[in-house]
Amino acid sequence: MKNKDKKPSAADSASAFLFCIPCLFGTEGLVSDELRRMGLSDIKTEDGRVFFSGSFADCIRVNLWLRCGERVLLVLGSFPAPDFNALFEGTHALPWPDLLPSDACFPVTGYCLDSALFSVPDCQRIIKKAIVEKLKTRWSLQHFPETGAEYKIRFSVRKNIAMIALDTSGTALHKRGYRPAHTQAALRETLAASMVKLSRYRGKEDFCDPFCGSGTIAIEAAFAALNRAPGVFRDFAAEKWGLSDPVLWRNMRNEAICAEYSGDYRIFASDIDPAAVQIARDNAVRAGVDHIIRFDVSDARTFSRTCDRGLIVTNPPYGERLLDHEQAQALYRDFGKAMEGKDNWALYLLSSDPDFELCYGHRANKKRKLYNGMIKCDLYMYFEKK
Ligand SMILES: C[S@@+](CC[C@H](N)C(=O)[O-])C[C@H]1O[C@@H](n2cnc3c(N)ncnc32)[C@H](O)[C@@H]1O
User: Fold this and answer.
1) Which amino acid residue places its CA nearest to atom 16 of ligand 1?
2) Ligand 1 pocket test: which of 183, 216, 270, 332 has the largest number of ligand atoms within 8 Å of its C-beta?
3) How far, in Å, from the CA of 278 to the mean position of ligand 1?
4) How far apart are CA 124 and CA 82, in angstroms?
5) Which of 60, 147, 243, 376 is the most exposed place for a label (fewest CB within 10 A)?
6) Residues of the chain scoring pLDDT < 70
7) Is the distance from the beta carbon of residue 322 to the nearest atom of ligand 1 less than 6 Å?
8) What is the pTM for the complete model shown?
């Protein structure tokens, strides 16, 4: 914690705590831009994570509003951990009895990178032991029942520096709650939101995803158009913590609901597979955005729209999980032909195929590296020709 030995209190809105947002590789800049737009300070990026300083109210706001980040961690401390002893001592020094009630459930998860400590299960065990020993200094219990609210402990050891944090989100932020069912090779909601953000879609022009699968990109585009806080209808681990103020959560949710726009949006989502379109439609209903997305069963190889300008953000098969490599490349060629002459359409297409441009028939104006899970991809960006 930044203010030493201070426990986060909603009432104490001036408190500055340090937070960390883990995110997909390649999306760090997008997350920091989101935080900057929320007026947050001390934003720093590292590979796969972004830090900011703020109050507990800021933590609630970021949980509700963040589109591209994976979770909001309250950083409790960072210290050199060249060995298990240092990891134990550094963890033990943190004010656990002020943070965790005696019945807290506190699973420990994390990772080690470029460090002398490399065994994740051993680090988990040491951290758990240090917390238990510290809790025993407050409560005379030999065994902690862990039957209460969940306080997930997340750790990282990077270049021999340990960071210990409390996970305020619980379920990861990409789980917005609208997608219990998804098609094969569905994108993470946070990656879909990142693609929409990179396309700079603001709800004005026609927006299309002709390979929509379970509809993730179109639904995230609808959220962006409506100014919908993506976390507004789900819950978060920190809501159940004793230190959390339910009135503050309720007020911030209501504010988010009131901040929604309404308008005449033109979002189109289609797929060749009728079952995928049905799943996408159901997901949009659950997300409460089915009124602004038009769904169709359609073959992207014959893509055509009556409108002469717009934005396509899409994720066709790569030849890894759907179709084989040759089939995927033939599809890119056919889609390239269908796009001939549509110079007023901008295209943002995610593919892991390094030969995509060759098949599609045009060089992208720009490329951006993004990771779809473990698959290294490029977002191929074709800007509209004015
Ligand atoms: C990688 S998935 C899209 C996943 C989607 N972004 C999601 O989050 O669920 C690719 C989709 O392209 C569809 N597809 C394959 N060939 C197609 C074609 N010729 N026209 C339209 N859709 C096609 C598949 O049915 C599949 O749903």
Assistant:
1) 272
2) 183
3) 13
4) 15
5) 147
6) 1-15, 181, 183, 320-323, 386
7) yes
8) 0.94
